[in-house]
Amino acid sequence: MAKIKILVVEDKGIAAKEIQLTLKKLGYEVPCVVSSEKNAIQKAKEYNPDLVLMDIALKGETDGIKAAEQILSRLSIPVVYLTAHADDEILKRAKVTEPFGYIIKPFEPKELRSVIEMALYKAKIENELRASKTSFHNIVEKSTDGIIVVDKGGIVQFVNPAAENLFGQKSKNLVGQLFGFPVVAGEVMELDIICQDKEPGTAEMRVVETQWEDQGAWLALLRDITKRKEAEEKLKETMKMKSEFTSTVSHELRTPLTAIKEGIALVLDGLAGDINEEQEELLGIAKKNVDRLARLINDVLDFQKLDSGKMKFNLEANDINQIVKDIYEMMASPAKNLGIDILLERDQNLPKARFDNDKITQVLTNLVNNAMKFTEKGNIIIKTSKTEDGIGVSVSDTGPGIKKEDQSKVFDSFEQLGHGGERKTGGTGLGLAISKEIVERHGGRIWVESKHDKGSKFMFTLPIYSTEGLLKNYINDGIRQASMNNAKMSLVLVSIGDFDKLEQTLSHEKITSTLKDMGAILENNLRRAGNSPHRAADAVFKLSSEVLVILANCGKENTPVVRERLEQKLGDYLSQQNLNDKVRLLFGCAAYPDDAITSEELIKKAKELQAMAAVAPSV
Fold first, then answer.
1. Any alpha helices (H) in 76-215, and if so which ranges?
2. Cβ pair 495, 610 in contact under 8 A
């Protein structure tokens, strides 16, 4: 089968090369890359491509929109606009040419594929529609996908046999009726199909504009994906079982492993009697292997928690330089025994950043351990610095380096690379994959720079959060989990009213301890629900003057019940502490996706309710 040919029109050399490589990786043929309107039209005639990717901002007297007009009118070749500009004027001009797609740079390969495939499909449909009504009816009558024509008023005008079967009704009962589903050209959506004589199902709908009896209309393409959705649910359940099995096995291995480790330690300490040098050596080897197995189990458990979204992050204001100092003090001596010097280069003017101290320590420890593992002589440099949007940490070594073709693999799961890309055993190959996930969950990024035989430098960044930014980070994490599991999520924001006035009557220590106690009370109250095997864990986060509760799998209808329970628990605590006449708690609730779908909108909704509570009379 011949590959789909795509002509690329892009006047920026590097960008053009990247687009060409991406298209080839996606399986398309790129016969030519041009940079001007004249060449675009000429090469379109010469190669007759299936589609043209057109950059709007071309150099010269005319831009890509003019070139697209010529190609569409003269050659009827579909054009997809590709540009870094998205202002209203450009969009308005571009729409006049009726392009087959529009994608904003930068983009992901899957986004490019989706736009191209939709454009090609749309072009195919439009060509078929232009042929004749007879040809159109032959195609739709035999299609295994449901096809429905809806006029601009939303009234059904035509239904093919596949659509009749999908909805369980004859065409005569559907034509003339209101379609009942939102119709948006270019979007893909899922519809819940409920029929009288068959089990409920799910259909995937794509919509394109068409002509029906010389009038504008919508062509809805519906594919029954009920079995696919059922398979996805089974796959999700299987993955859940695999995750639970891995966790259970790993935990079960820990208990006997701990006993073995303690037993060996007792014998090595001479508590079970004197041992000779040979026995001590053998027990030392056994202890090292037990420690190694413990590390492997911990890696598997950490990876499983990250993969399932169950690892909790305690984000607080921390000093990255202190972590670097602690790592140096812990590892300088072992490195020295290997003939390696660890050097520190710390920016002493770095601001504090909000991150999980233990998790970032784990990342940095792993990077330094890797550097020690692959460095036979020379030094390891741990450096901190200020970046444009946060703080940066790097670990560089004088080891053998990593081949260019292997650098993209280093953060993959179960990937182990050694000298010159050769595999070096001694771990699970999960350390860097875990580090990458941890850093990205903090909103940072991690990467490697290396030259073969000249050493490697691993770097990661961490953002500096404001209180508002930290809130958004927590909520985005909850939204991500809810979206992945096709579930709902709610948040309850508990703040202390008139906080500034309270600081004048209570000491800072008393306010801090009160907030800490409130957080603990909420955690204890939610923990039972969080441990249910049928739902993800709830989470409690303590901030400077408020506490945020994320309720997993909790929709808007259930949030008031939870809020009432929390309010009662906290009220009892304040009464016991004789603080109920001094501390006034304000509650704000918002639910995803019922109230809002972004962190900004959820926070705004919760704070609006808090503001209403603040002006309401106390009871």
1. 88-96, 109-131, 133-142, 161-167, 171-174
2. yes
Evaluate whether 210 touches 125 at the Cβ level (below 8 Å).
yes
Q: Rounded to an integer, what distance in angstroms lies between the CA atom of residue 459 and that of residue 364? A: 10
Using the 8-state DSSP alphabet, how is residue 58 labeled?
-
Beta strands in 10-74 (DSSP E): 33-34, 51-55
Provide CB contacts within 8 A for 22, sequence distance 6+: 109, 112
- Token representation of residue 567: 């309010």
Q: Give the DSSP letter of residue 540.
A: E
The model's pLDDT over 453-507, given as tens digits with 9 standing for 90+, comes to 788 999 999 987 655 666 676 777 778 777 777 788 888 888 888 777 887 888 8
31 preceded by cis ω (within 30°)? Answer: no
Are the beta carbons of 82 and 10 closer than 8 angstroms? yes
Give the residue among 36, 548, 121, 91 at the shortest CA–CA distance from 313: 548
List, as one string, the DSSP characters of 323-382: HHHHHHHHHHHHHHHTTEEEEEE--TTPPPEEE-HHHHHHHHHHHHHHHHHH-SSEEEEE
What is the DSSP secondary structure assignment for residue 97, as one 8-state letter?
Answer: T
Locus of tokens 């590959």: 3
Which residues contact residue 270 at a Cβ distance below 8 angstroms, ignoring those fewer than 6 apart? none
Cβ neighbours, 10 Å, residue 376? 13
The tokens of 369 are what? 């351990």
Contact criterion met (CB below 8 Å) for 16 and 33: yes
191 class by beta-carbon count within 10 Å (0-12 exposed, 13-18 middle, 19+ buried): middle
| Chain-centre distance for alpha carbon 238 | 21
Note whether 451 and 483 are within 8 A (CB): no
User: pLDDT tens for residues 275-290?
Assistant: 888 888 888 788 777 7
Amino acid at 490: S
41-45, 265-269, 331-335, 528-532: lowest mean pLDDT where? 528-532
Q: Decide: pTM greater than 0.85.
A: no
Backbone angles phi, psi at 102, to 5 degrees: -150, 120
Q: What is the largest CA-CA distance in the chain?
A: 100
Q: Which residue has the tokens 């449901």?
A: 146
